[in-house]
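Predict both folds.
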Amino acid sequence: MPVARLLLLTLLACLGLAARAEPLRIVSEPWAPYVYEEHGEIRGLDYEASAEVFRRLGVEVEWSLQPWKRCLMELESGQADGVLDIFHTDERESWMVYPAEPLSKVEFVLFHDRQRPYPFNRLDDLRGLKVGVSPGYWYADPQFRTSPLFTREAAPTHEANLGKLVRDRVDLVVNDRLAGRFLIHKMGLAGKVGEHARVISRDRLYLSFRRTPELERLAGRFSAELLRFKQEPAYAQLKSRYQATAASLDGNR
């Protein structure tokens, strides 16, 4: 194949999404400070990083925040092109493509009512307790996901989980450390809710795409541009801004 034709085909492939008749549709569930809505605008560390990457790639995006299970259903059915802030699992590989570069790293911990701390050093300490979880969420530690020692009770939102905690309807709540602190601060619960130091599991958050040839190419471009952005001062400033609230709560365990 002549070099000029090869370069033309490569250019057309790269511009394919930019020339779409409709914008790319990306869905996610609110999970502050990574992605959430405030005063009618979507904000968040991972949202703003992703939006900047798409801007640099020249890709127009339509964003939608909705319940997590609906996000997955829309992606699987083809109603959405991608989902923001999802964990990588082998089971999802057949119908999702993940960029090589993650958006954020997270660590899940247990939050407790300060009046009922329930010391937690090993899984057996949870025996007989009720732990608030989020429906459809993936917890990387298989023992925590499947242990019969305690009961897992789902709530429709992260706010609802913390509300149940302070009303003594669950004994503990599992959430990402940064997300939990951010929400505790927002709900004015810093004096009522603390956290355990032990990490249950660590994971990475990605913006995954529906598995099509066009979106697979976009995933590669997104990953490369995200990595470049992360090496710039602008990303460090963005990350620092969203970590500030969590840092202010660091001693409130």
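Second protein follows, with its predicted structure tokens after the sequence.
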Amino acid sequence: MTSSQPTESVDVVLVGAGIMSATLATLLSDLQPDWSMTVLERLNAAGLESSNAWNNAGTGHSALCELNYAPQAADGTVSAKKALNINEQFQVTRQLWSSLVENGTLESPGTFINPVPHISMVFGEDHADYLRARYDAFKPHKLFERMEFTENRDQIAEWAPLTMHGRGAGRVAATFAPEGTDVDFGALTNQLLTHLTGRNVTVRYGQEVTTLKRQSDGSWNVSVEDRLNSDNNRVIHARFVFLGAGGGALSLLQKSGIREAKGFGGFPVSGLFLRNTDPTVTSQHNAKVYGQASVGAPPMSVPHLDTRYVHGERTLMFGPYGGFKPNFLKHGSLLDLPKSVRAHNLYPMTRAGLANLDLVKYLVGELTKTRSQRMDALREYYPTAEESQWELIEAGQRVQVMKSNRQKGGVLQFGTELVTSADGSIGALLGASPGASTAVPIMLNLLSRCFPAKMSEWEPRIKELIPSYGKKLDENPQLADEIMGHTAQVLGIK
């Protein structure tokens, strides 16, 4: 049993050794180098859950190709507002990475980010009309000014040859964004944590947080079980706690007992990808090609044919194929979902579920797909794909946020949700895509909410690391050219 008395004290405890904790620890270590921090990870290495390269699509989410960020309204119009917001956030993330490369925190940028154009491709009259409307809405904006649109098959074949080999008749439309990227968030996470280790940050593996108890002064006692040696169980006293444990953050948030956690639930969605490592195929495709999601499919299940760079190797990946498992982590428990149900979230979860029966129908259909049917889906984007060249791999778990809603009782929210206590002593990140790509602005938001009294002191340094901090690049064309040009040069991307 873990003793109820603290065995050590630190300023900050971060739960989960993924991209979120690594980003927050990096910022805090720079802004407040006198603070001591401990990162606790239940697995035996960093970045093995959602941050792992094969557990996500590696898309530097900047809304260049993800059509779900710009849905078409009933009147046929398309708004670029949400897409612009996501792109602005990724530009902030890129600026921090650029600064960290320049100061030696990160290694050669090619170890974690590579230039890969982003393409949207659709088939049929209605989808082609939508893509044209989206292009017309995006093109006037500074952040999307390099985007191109075409229905010319020869041009599409030049952009993404495999997508046009053997394609039959029918209308095809595509947009092309040359500044797209592929990111290995697992490699990035490990580089950040390796640099922090030995400074003011301790990273411990095989450590599972079991309870969180708030103290009278607002600090926390964090009970930790050592999964390899129970003699090393401990209680860590911390002034601030961050729950960045991916799907595992919800249960820990519930254990904290803070009022702000009431009404939150989670719906896990699993996924599978087809992977191709044959150089004769991978050498012919250098793009991330995103299409339209099936009816009822969650945004993370938009079909895409991607170039991936993992450990220096260029591969192809197609998917994801949706699925359902009740565990909140890939290496979690099948009891995660039922154990997360509480009196305060049962009604919101029920209402959200009833409002998303299309999602349930979609997942049932995905679960019953045969390998032949999965290949048929691939051949919509790569018509001449050979089945023998593709292997099926399991992706990471994504836990979509379910929360109470005054009008609807409960809603299923796609995206991320930052939950912080009123006193700023604890924060948690729930949800999924585009989380990793927007880790830096999310963590800056957390800092402003949890440490408001420190922000004026930290702001000058934040602006050194992120020159556009507090400004919108899309609204400042000259600044955008300067900053985006510099980050592209430092990171070795277009």
